[in-house]
């Protein structure tokens, strides 16, 4: 099980996030993940999603259900396509999108982004770094991510940011 601590600067809340991937076959898994808000002591959300990977096309698709304490039950669809910029695949251009729907498939919440990702192996001894710079198309906002082994900092140009530590 993957576990992380997540601090969101805007809401000033610390959350405990847990994720488990259960293999269905070599290219498909069931992903379960949820979050506990330490401020309220209550779960923030729980999600179950079937994810399938197409390695020959460097593409992934997912379909699932998401239960949120505010929005109740929602359906999720997500996809990501990766285009290697260099032959070693350390620099990629990624197109990703997702859409979640209410129970009646009336209310939609689309998200979509284009981003460059640069992975730097052994930036320092036993330290890998990944830098992402992208643009979220529906919110119309640039964003960035810096990841170093267990630490991840996400920020966008609207002032939203969060910090994650993988346990």
TrEMBL record:
Belongs to the plastid outer envelope porin OEP21 (TC 1.B.29) family. The lineage of its organism: Eukaryota, Viridiplantae, Streptophyta, Embryophyta, Tracheophyta. The keyword Cell division does not apply. PANTHER family: OUTER ENVELOPE PORE PROTEIN 21B, CHLOROPLASTIC. One of its GO terms (biological process) is regulation of monoatomic anion transport. The keyword Nucleotide-binding does not apply. This is Outer envelope pore protein 21B, chloroplastic. It comes from the Eukaryota. It comes from Microthlaspi erraticum. Voltage-dependent rectifying anion channel that facilitates the translocation between chloroplast and cytoplasm of phosphorylated carbohydrates such as triosephosphate, 3-phosphoglycerate and inorganic phosphate (Pi) depending of ATP to triosephosphate ratio in the plastidial intermembrane space; in high triosephosphate/ATP conditions (e.g. photosynthesis), export of triosphosphate from chloroplast (outward rectifying channels), but in high ATP/triosephosphate conditions (e.g. dark phase), import of phosphosolutes (inward rectifying channels).
């Amino acid at each position: 099980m993957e576990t992380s601590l997540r601090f969101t600067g805007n809401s000033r809340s610390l959350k405990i996030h847990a994720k488990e991937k259960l293999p269905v076959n070599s290219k498909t898994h069931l992903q379960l993940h949820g979050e506990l808000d330490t401020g309220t002591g209550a779960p923030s959300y729980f999600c179950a999603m079937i994810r399938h990977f197409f390695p020959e096309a460097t593409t992934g698709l997912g379909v699932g259900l998401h239960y949120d304490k505010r929005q109740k039950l929602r359906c999720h669809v997500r996809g990501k396509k990766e285009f290697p910029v260099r032959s070693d695949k350390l620099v990629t251009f990624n197109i990703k999108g997702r859409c979640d729907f209410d129970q009646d498939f009336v209310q939609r919440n689309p998200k979509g982004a284009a981003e460059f990702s640069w992975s730097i192996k052994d930036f320092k001894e036993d330290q890998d770094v990944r830098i992402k710079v992208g643009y979220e198309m529906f919110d119309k906002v640039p964003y960035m991510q810096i990841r170093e082994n267990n630490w991840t900092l996400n920020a966008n140009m609207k002032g939203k940011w969060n910090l994650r530590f993988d346990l």
